[in-house]
């Protein structure tokens, strides 16, 4: 495992970070989730990412239980706030001071820790003044409940304004958590250059494009039983944008490239995002411990420019690069 600094800070995190979206508390049993966390620790992963909304708070509880006997100082635990939790009442969502303050306390209780290393705004809240949100984050940092602040799926302009306010209020906004993969490169035109300028790193989710870049989905064939594309709890909605024959035919061309690199297609996909110098970590999940062991083999892999060009040539025009997608897919108001 290799470790990278997160943004313009002294915090180092494992470049493969374990995330438990769509798994803990929903897809897999708790004992299997604990085995996956154990596999991550054994592989040198020290950074764990979750959110209060995952499985409506159950994912945080499962992760807290799995990590409770580990040395806290050796871990970096990340969580997030924005999406609805609990019964979904009028103040159970968004980035108001009320919701943030209540949410951090709930997250710490479920995670069985006194603080999180990184507390992230899971989306931008169009219904709360940004000044209110950032003041609440500043207070949480001063209270010692979070060490650093990050955001997820914010536009370049939103990140710039967030960083400005964080500096005025005396805390560090050091990370952005966007979707990023060989197939989904919408952060490259605007978000990445802005973050490089401001000292903000990317912690990217879905580097394997919801499993599409493993090669398991075949053109002209139904999705394999038990795959993300058949999961109606949420995974199917995210993966369907990639399940077009033209995309899948292009993805098949990555197989020989992965073979030449001595990697599986999944490892190639994770290694690819880590070639971007603004990426501090790739988030990987798992429903089986052996998946963790396989994914971590992408750590430390260097892909030369010729191989990177072969990947670009193979995927061609199926790659999504439109910077406007971040704003287009963002919630236009709080989701109840």
Automatic annotation (TrEMBL):
Residues 15-314 form the NADP-dependent oxidoreductase domain. The keyword Transcription regulation does not apply. GO terms for molecular function: oxidoreductase activity. Keywords: NADP, Oxidoreductase. InterPro entries: K_chnl_volt-dep_bsu_KCNAB-rel (IPR005399), NAD(P)_OxRdtase_dom_sf (IPR036812), NADP_OxRdtase_dom (IPR023210). The keyword NADP applies. Pfam families: Aldo_ket_red. Belongs to the shaker potassium channel beta subunit family. PANTHER family: HYPERKINETIC, ISOFORM M. This is Aldo/keto reductase. It comes from Intrasporangium chromatireducens Q5-1.
């Amino acid at each position: 495992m290799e470790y990278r600094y997160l943004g313009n800070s002294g915090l180092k995190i494992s470049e493969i970070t374990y995330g438990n979206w769509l798994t803990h508390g929903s897809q897999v049993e708790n004992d299997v989730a604990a085995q996956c966390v154990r596999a991550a620790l054994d592989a040198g992963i020290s950074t764990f990412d979750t959110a209060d909304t995952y499985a409506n708070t159950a994912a945080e509880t499962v992760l807290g239980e799995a990590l409770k006997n580990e040395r806290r100082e050796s871990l970096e635990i990340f969580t997030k706030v924005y999406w609805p939790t609990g019964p979904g009442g009028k103040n159970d969502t968004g980035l108001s001071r009320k919701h943030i303050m209540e949410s951090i306390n709930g997250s710490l209780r479920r995670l069985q820790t006194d603080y999180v290393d990184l507390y992230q705004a899971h989306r931008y809240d169009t219904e709360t003044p940004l000044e209110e949100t950032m003041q609440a984050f500043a207070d949480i940092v001063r209270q010692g409940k979070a060490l650093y602040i990050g955001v997820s799926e914010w536009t370049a302009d939103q990140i710039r304004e967030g960083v400005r306010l964080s500096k005025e209020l005396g805390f560090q906004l050091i990370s952005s958590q966007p979707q990023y993969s060989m197939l989904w490169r919408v952060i490259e035109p605007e978000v990445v250059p802005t973050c490089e300028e401001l000292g903000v790193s990317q912690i990217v989710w879905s580097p394997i494009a919801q499993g599409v870049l493993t090669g398991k989905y075949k053109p002209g064939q139904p999705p394999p039983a038990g795959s993300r594309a058949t999961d109606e709890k949420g995974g199917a909605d995210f993966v369907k944008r990639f399940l077009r024959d033209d995309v899948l035919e292009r993805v098949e061309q990555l197989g020989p490239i992965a073979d030449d690199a001595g990697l599986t297609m999944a490892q190639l996909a994770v290694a690819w995002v880590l070639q971007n110098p603004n990426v501090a970590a790739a988030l990987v999940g798992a429903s089986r411990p052996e998946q963790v062991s396989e994914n971590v083999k992408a750590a430390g892999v260097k892909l030369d420019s010729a191989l990177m060009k072969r990947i670009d040539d193979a995927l061609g025009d199926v790659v999504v690069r439109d910077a406007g997608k971040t704003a287009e897919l963002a919630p236009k108001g709080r989701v109840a």
